[in-house]
Amino acid sequence: GAREGKMAAALAERSCLELSGAERGPRRRVRELALSPVGPGAGRYADSAGGFCYQESAQLVSVTRNRFIHWTTSGDTLELVEESLDINLLNNAIRLKIQNCSLLPGGVHVCETQNLIVILIVTNQTVHRLVLPHPARMYRSELITEGQMQSVFTDIGKVNFRDPSNYHMIPSIPGLASNSTASAAWLSSDGEALFALPSASGGIFVLKLPPHDVHGIVSVVELKQSSVMQRLLTGWMPTAIRGDQGPSDLPVSLSVHCLEHDAFLFALCQDHKLRMWSYKDQMCLMVADLLEFVPVNKDLRLAAGTGHRLRLAYSQSLGLYLGVYMHAPKRGQFCVFQLVSTESNRYSLDHISSLFTSQETLVDFALTPAEIWALWHDDENQTVVKYINFEQNIAGQWNQVFVQPLPEEEVNIRDDQDPRETYLESLFMPGQFTNAALLKALQIFSRGGERIVDLTWDELKKEVTLAVENELQGSVTEYEFSQEEFRQLQVEFWSKFYACCLQYQEALSRPLALHLNPYTNMVCLLKKGFLSFLVPCSLVDHLYLLPDEHLLTEDDSTIFDDLEMSRDVVCLVQCLRLIGESISMEMAFIMEMACSRLQPPEKAAEQILEDLIANDTENVMEDIHSKLQEIRNPIHAIGVLIREMDYETELEMERAQPHNVRMNLSQLYGSGTAVTVVCRGVCKMATTRFLICRDLLILQQLLLRLGDMILGGGQLFQSQQDLLHRTSPLLLSYYLIRWASQCLASDVPVDTLESNLQHLSVLELTDTTALTPHKLVSSPQTIVELFFQEVARKHIISHLFSQPNTSLSETSLNWPHLITAIAADLLPLLWPSNPGFLFPECLMGSCQYTQLQEYIRLLQPWCHVNVGSCRFLMGRCYLVMGEGHKALDCFCQAASEVGKEEFLDRLIRAEDGEMASTPRLQYYDKVLRLLDIIGLPELVIQLATLAITEAADDWRSQATLRTCIFKHHLDLGHNSQAYEALTQNPDSSRQLDCLRQLVVVLCERSQLQDLVEFPYVNLHNEVVGIIESRARAVDLMTHNYYELLYAFHIYRHNYRKAGTVMFEYGMRLGREVRTLRGLQKQGNCYLAAINCLRLIRPEYAWIVQPASGAVYERPGASPKRSHDGECTAVPSKSLIEILELEDLEKECMLARIRLTLAQHDPSTAAVAGSSSPEEMVALLVQAGLFDTAVSLCQTFKLPLTPVFEGLAFKCIKLQFGGEVAQAEAWDWLAANQLSSVITTKESSATDEAWRLLSSYLDRYKSQNHLYHHSVINKLLSHGVPLPNWLINSYKKVDAAELLRLYLNYALLEEAVDLVLEYVDALLGKGHEHFGIEHPLSAIAPMVWLPYSAIDQLLQALGENTTNHHSFVVSTSPRCCHPGGSARGDGSNTKVHWGEREQVGAR
C-alpha cells in the first residue's frame, strides 16, 4: 500500500507512453457514401483529423460510456469511425466522399443533443449537416451486457444527403477567404446549425441552416466592425500585412463557446489579436493584443500570424480557459488565459501562464483547465508529443511522451537464420506493422493486380510469402546457383518488400491531431491510418527511458519521500542507461539466447560485461565507475529498484468469481481496442523492464568485480550476491511476459474446442477454465490478449470496483488511473512465481497447446511455484499431441504436488456425497477419467496400477482401481490380465459384476476357450450361476451359453451337470425354437446328454428333470401379472422327477423323429418341437410317415390304431382322388418301406397304398384283431366297399365281428352272403376260408355260430319283407331256427348256438 501511495504521488507528473490501437485483423468494413453537390472546384487542403467524445462517456451507467468518434479528412473524403473501449461496435465506420469539394482542415464538428448526434461538415464550397439518432435513443437499457452493439452510424443509410435542408452552397458574397482554413460550427438552442467562416473581405460570416425538422430559409450574417470602431480597436496596422496577406482581422483560428441563448465566437486573427464576438448581438465584445504576452515581439509585429492556434477549455467550477499558440520561427509560445467578465457585459483576459517550446512545427494541441498537450513534427520528421501541467509546473518543465518508434529500418539476419522466416517474423510480430501497411505493400509488390481486401492475418502471411517468392523466381535467369547466392537473393527481395512496408507504415503513422476527452482525461493520437492512446508510464520505466538532460533535472522528491534514496536511485538508473547504450546487438543477443535456451542469465551478464570491458573505446566504464561513486548505498538502491519491479504476491489475488462483477461492469474495457491497448501496455512494460533487469545484472556483475572498492566489507558482498539471485528470476519473468505478449494465439476449430470442453468437464474445470466453443476471434490475438479478454479482465474489474459502498452511478471513469491500475493488476496475474494459475489455465481452456508447452518450457528451470500444476498441463498438451506416455509421466510427476497447489486442489474438489479418499487418490481418479474419455486404455492401466500402491489401506479405492484395470484389460483383449485383476478385487459385489462382464464380453468375442479354462478359484458357483442366468435370459439361437456351460462342465469332468445342461437346452429348443435348425440342434443336444450319462457309472447315470416352462427365477425380474393386473401366484414347486439313461434315449428318438417329420414337411416344424409322442403319431400319420409312426408307437408302447386308421383313410382318399392326389401320394409312399416290389404289372399309387396297408395288417398283430376291425370300420364309415383281400383276411380271423360291422352299416346283402358262406363253412364247405380247423361232425369239437347277429339280421330282413334275401335266408335248408335242433342227413352232428357274441364258431 505504501509503495502504491508513493507511486501515485509520482504519477501526477510523469512521462507517458504511446500505445497503438491498430487492429491486426482485416480492416473493419467501411461503408462508402458519395454525394456531388457542385461542379468542379479548385484547391486541396492538408489532411486533418479530429475527435468527439460523448458528454456521458465517463459515467459508468451510461450507454455512451467509453465511446467516442474520430475522423480523418483527405481531399474530398471524410472517414468517420466510432470507437468503444467496452464493446465491439457494428457498422462503426463510414467513408463520405463529397465530390468536387475539398474538406477544410478542422472542418468537421460534432454536436450532441439529448436525442441526436449532429455532424456539421465544412468544405471549400459547401456546408453539410448529418443528423443521426443518439445511442441512448437506440439502446434505452442502461445495462449493456452483450459483447457487441450497433454503432451510431448504423442507420447512416437512411440519411438523405441530398435533402436541400441539410446542405448549402457557401455564397460567393461575402465569400470564403482563400488563405485561411479556420472554421467553427455549433447548434443553437433551437436546433439551428450555424457555421462561422472567415470572410474573403476580412472578419467572419455565419451561415445558418434552419432546424433539421423545420422548413425554413438559410440566412447569412456578417460580423463586421464599423471603420471608426475598427480603427479605435485595432489602431495603426503596417501596410505590409494588410496589402500582401489580406485583411488584418482575417481569422486564422476560430473557436466557439455556446451559452444558453447565445454563442461567443473567438477569432485569433493574423494581426496577432484575439477578438470575441457575441453572435446574438452581432457585436465584438473584446479585442486583445496577444503580442503583449510575447517577450521579444518586434519581428512578429511585421509578420502575419498565420501559424497561430486557439483552443478553449470549459470547466463548470473554473469557467472558460483560452489556450493560444503564438507561432514564431524557431520558437513558439503557449499562453493560457481565463475569460473574466466584469459588470455591464465587459470581458477581459486574465493571463494564467506562458510556456515556451523550441520544437519546430506544431501539428496540434489540446487544452484542459489544468494541462496542455502538444503534438509537433521536428526537423527529422519525428513525432514529438509533450504535455505540461500549467497550474503546478512553475519550472516550465514539459513531460515526455515516449512515442511508438517505427519498426527497425533493417532486419539483421544471423548466419543461422532463414531469411524468409526472419523477415516474416519481423513483419508479422504483434505491434510492428499494421494490416493496412502490409496490404498496400503487397498491392504494390504483386504489380497492382486486383485490389486485395479483407485478408485475415494468416492469409496475408501466405499472400506476402507467395508474392515475394514469385518475384524472386521471376528474376532468376540461371538454373543453378549456390546456397549462398540463393540466400543473398532471398535477403535482397525480402528487404525490398520490408522497405516497402516501412514506407507505408511511416505514411500511416503520420500524426494529424490530438484527441482529448475532458471527461475521462483520455488522450489519443489520431494518425493517418490508425489511432493510438497515451497512457501514464510507470515510475521505473519513466526513469530508464527519460533522456539524460531530463533525468538530471528530475525533481528527486517526486520519486521517494527519502531524498537521499531518490538521488541514489536516479544515479543507479543513469548507470544502467550508460550500460544499455553501450550494449551492441550481438551482446544483447547473448542475453536473449540465454533466456531462450534456459541458460543462467548471470553467466550471460558476466560474458556481456567482459565484452563491454574488452570493447570499451569511449571510456564508458570510467563514467560508470564515477557514477557509482556518487551512490551512497548501492545495495539499498538496487533493492529498492528490484522491489519496484517485482510483482510477486504472497497471496493470490482473491479469486473473486467474475460473476459478481456488477452487470454494468461486465463489459468494461472489453472491446478489441481496449484489450489491445492494455496488453500492448503490458508488453511495453515487460520489454523495458527486461532491459532494465539485463543492465542491472551486468551492473551487479561489475559491482562484484569491483568488490570492496564500492561495496565495502564481506557482508555487503554477500547481500550483493543475494540481490544478483533476485534479479535473475525477475529478468526471466519479464522475458516470459514479453514472449507471451508477442506470441499469437492459434485459431481453434470448433470441434476441437468442444472436445476440449468435454475433457474439462471430466476434470470439472469448465466453470473457470473453458472458453465457450462459439467464441470467434476476429483478428489474431496474442495469448496475453486472449487471457485478458476471457479471464483476467473480469477478475481485475471486480477487484477494482469491489468496494461494496461505492455507488456506480456516481463513479466517474478516469482513463489514466484506470489503465495504470489495470496494468498493475494484470501483471501479478501473469507473474510466473505467483500462486495464481489463471494464465496457463486459460491457455489450456482455449486449446493453445503449442503456446502452453513453450510457456512451461521457459518457466521450468527457474520457477518453483506451481510445479505440479505445470506438469499436469504439460501432460494435457502431450495428450492432445498424441504422446500418451510422456503425458503419463507428467501426470505422475504432478501427483507429488497434490495438496500443495491451488490449481491441483481445485482439480480434486470432492463432489457432494463422494467418499473422501486421500487427495492423491482423488487426483488419480480425475486423471484416470480423463485418460478414459480420450480412449487410452494402456495408460489407464499403468496409472491405476501405480495408484493401487497408493491405496494400500483403502479397500474401497482398491476395488475401484482394480475394477478399472479389469475393464481396460478386457477392452484391450488381455483376457488373462483381466481375469487376474478380477480375482484380486477386494469387493465381492464388484468382483461379481466384473465376472459377469467377463463372461458376456468373451462370449460376444467368441473367446470361449479362455473363458472355460480360467481356474475360477472360489468363484466356480458364481460363474455357473452367471452363465446359467445368461443362458436362460437370452435368445437361444444367437447365443450359445448352454454350449459354453456344457464345455465348462466337460472341462472339469462334471459329466452329469454337462448332461443336465444339454438336456435343458434341448427341451428349450423344442419349446422356443420352432424351426428345422432348432430341431436339428435339439437332437444333437439329447445325443450329447446321452453321451455324458454313458460316461458315468450306471448307478449314477441319472439327471434331474429341468423345470418345465421358461420361467426360471431370475434375480431382479419383474413380477408377472395376470390380465387384470394382479400379481400371479408363483406356482409351488412340483415333485422332483429323475430321468435315467433310458428316458433320455426315448427323448432322443422322439427328437430324431420330429426332425424326420420336419424334413419331410417343413410346415410341421412349428408344432413338432414340443409335441408329445401321441401328438407326434398323429402328425406323422398325417404326413404319411407310417413306418416312423409305427416305430414311435412301439418305443413308447402306444397302440397302432391311429396308424392303421390314418393309412386306411389315405387309401380311401386315393381311391376317389384325382391324378393330382395320385402324384402327391408317391412322396409319402416313398418314405415307407414296402415289403416287396411287384414287377408284373404297372401299379398305381392307390394299389401301393392298399398293399402297404395289407402288409401292415400282416406284420403287426393285435389282440382281437383290433387293427383289422379299425381299418374295416374306417372304410365302411366312409362308404367304401371292402376290398376282397381285406374281407378274406378278416373272415379268417373274426367272421362274426365282420358280420356285426355289416349289420352296423346296414349292409344286409353282404351280411346274408357272409352268413350263408359261414354256415356252409361250418358244415365243411370252404371251412379253411374262415379259419375253421374242424367243420361240424360227430367226432369234432363243438363249433359256434353268432346267433345274436343272425337274429338281428333276420329281424332286419323281416322288416324289409320285400327283400329277396330275406326269403332266401328263411327258406334255406341250411338255416336252422335257433332254439331247436335240426337234423339233416347227419343225425350225429351236434350244433351249439353260441351264447357269447364275441366268440365265433370254434
UniProtKB/TrEMBL annotation:
<protein>
    <submittedName>
        <fullName>Nucleoporin 160</fullName>
    </submittedName>
</protein>
<dbReference type="InterPro" id="IPR021717">
    <property type="entry name" value="Nucleoporin_Nup160"/>
</dbReference>
<feature type="compositionally biased region" description="Basic and acidic residues">
    <location>
        <begin position="1392"/>
        <end position="1402"/>
    </location>
</feature>
<dbReference type="Pfam" id="PF23347">
    <property type="entry name" value="TPR_Nup160_C"/>
</dbReference>
<feature type="domain" description="Nucleoporin Nup120/160 beta-propeller">
    <location>
        <begin position="67"/>
        <end position="540"/>
    </location>
</feature>
<feature type="domain" description="NUP160 middle TPR">
    <location>
        <begin position="831"/>
        <end position="1095"/>
    </location>
</feature>
<feature type="domain" description="NUP160 C-terminal TPR">
    <location>
        <begin position="1140"/>
        <end position="1366"/>
    </location>
</feature>
<keyword id="KW-0813">Transport</keyword>
<dbReference type="InterPro" id="IPR056535">
    <property type="entry name" value="TPR_NUP160_M"/>
</dbReference>
<keyword id="KW-0539">Nucleus</keyword>
<dbReference type="GO" id="GO:0017056">
    <property type="term" value="F:structural constituent of nuclear pore"/>
</dbReference>
<dbReference type="GO" id="GO:0005643">
    <property type="term" value="C:nuclear pore"/>
</dbReference>
<feature type="region of interest" description="Disordered">
    <location>
        <begin position="1379"/>
        <end position="1402"/>
    </location>
</feature>
<dbReference type="InterPro" id="IPR056547">
    <property type="entry name" value="NUP160_helical"/>
</dbReference>
<feature type="domain" description="NUP160 helical">
    <location>
        <begin position="562"/>
        <end position="787"/>
    </location>
</feature>
<dbReference type="InterPro" id="IPR056536">
    <property type="entry name" value="TPR_NUP160_C"/>
</dbReference>
<dbReference type="Pfam" id="PF11715">
    <property type="entry name" value="Beta-prop_Nup120_160"/>
</dbReference>
<dbReference type="Pfam" id="PF23354">
    <property type="entry name" value="TPR_NUP160_120_M"/>
</dbReference>
<dbReference type="Pfam" id="PF23345">
    <property type="entry name" value="NUP160_helical"/>
</dbReference>
<dbReference type="InterPro" id="IPR059141">
    <property type="entry name" value="Beta-prop_Nup120_160"/>
</dbReference>
